[in-house]
Amino acid sequence: MEDPGLFRTIVDNLCEGVLVVDRERKVLYWSPGAERITGHSSVDVVGRHSCDGVLANEAESGEALCPDRCPLARTLVDGVPREANVYLHHKDGHRVPVCVRPVAVGSEGGEISGALQSFVETFTRPEAVSGLAELEQMVSLDAVTGVANRHSTELRLRESMSEMHRYGRPFGVVVLDVDDLKRVKDTYGQQAGDRVLRMVARTLAASSRPSDVVGRWSGDELLVVIKNVDEGQLVRVADKFRSSVSTTALTLGQAQIHVTVSAGAAEAQPRDTADSLAARAENLLHLEKRGPGA
């Protein structure tokens, strides 16, 4: 495109995130779409290295892909366009699953001089709705965490229980609690504690399937309803949740707040009610929090 101003206008208005880096992976451009997806403004990002904490890519397991194994780095080496699903960290601390597509940019001599990478979220944010659906979301979401509120979570739990009893569809629940959240509140204040809880809730939502339900349960506890799983799969999902949260951090001024979660996972049994299933998962959570030998 001959008119760079027109090109910039088009890119600025894309819903996708777009970043441009030079050969040394210093960020030269960060689009409004990228800011919307990550919460980081161009002031936060432009001039920084694409491997630092703001932009570093992670695998689903939480394993760091930077500096050498992220799609952008590999495309800068061999010039091959790629598409991959990775995780970025939002400015509020939670992980964001994205599909990235890096493309090499060549100089007049044919050498790679940099790269352009677009990225889109790979799950639907609660706020990405409109009309009647938006009103329904407003009454079903928890104001602090942005995930389902207690009433909505209970409804989905009872629906899954009914489906299991009627059609034999397996499911389970994982109840999670943020470790030492009281210490965070005592040190940084109630608002910081709420932001940490929101960070954790959104990380769980980003680590879940569209058919799963993440909700605020009791106090600072979160409950996830997970369909079509057996006991072994449920345990692995709980481990994934623990791992995902352990890689997150909330930045407050010069401080970074890292947290972990404890979890109790329970597979639904024919004799269960919604209340008894949730109670079993909560008991397992409390056993984990008390530690070995409890």
Structure overview:
It is a single chain. With 294 residues, the chain is an alpha+beta fold. It has two domains: 118 residues, Beta-Lactamase, CATH 3.30.450.20; 160 residues, 2-Layer Sandwich (Alpha-Beta Plaits). The protein is built from ten helices and eleven strands. The chain has a five-stranded antiparallel β-sheet. Strands 7-8-6-11 form a four-stranded antiparallel β-sheet, with helices on both faces. A hairpin with a 4-residue loop joins strand 7 and strand 8. Helix 7 crosses helix 8. The chain is elongated and about 70 Å long.
Integer-rounded radius of gyration: 21 Å
Alpha-beta content class: alpha+beta
Distance between the termini: 67 Å
Please write the string of helix (H) and strand (E) elements. HEEHHHEEEHHEHHEEHEEEH
Describe this structure in a few short sentences.
With 294 residues, the protein is an alpha+beta fold.
Task: Name the features.
11 strands; alpha+beta; Alpha-Beta Plaits; 10 helices; 2 domains; 4-stranded antiparallel sheet; 5-stranded antiparallel sheet; 24% strand
Give the secondary structure arrangement, pairings included.
Elements: H1 4-12, E1 17-22, E2 27-30, H2 32-38, H3 42-45, H4 71-78, E3 84-89, E4 95-106, E5 112-121, H5 131-140, H6 150-167, E6 171-178, H7 181-188, H8 190-206, E7 213-216, E8 221-227, H9 231-246, E9 250-252, E10 255-257, E11 261-267, H10 274-290
Antiparallel strand pairs: 1-2, 1-5, 3-4, 4-5, 6-8, 6-11, 7-8, 9-10
Helix pairs in contact: 7-8
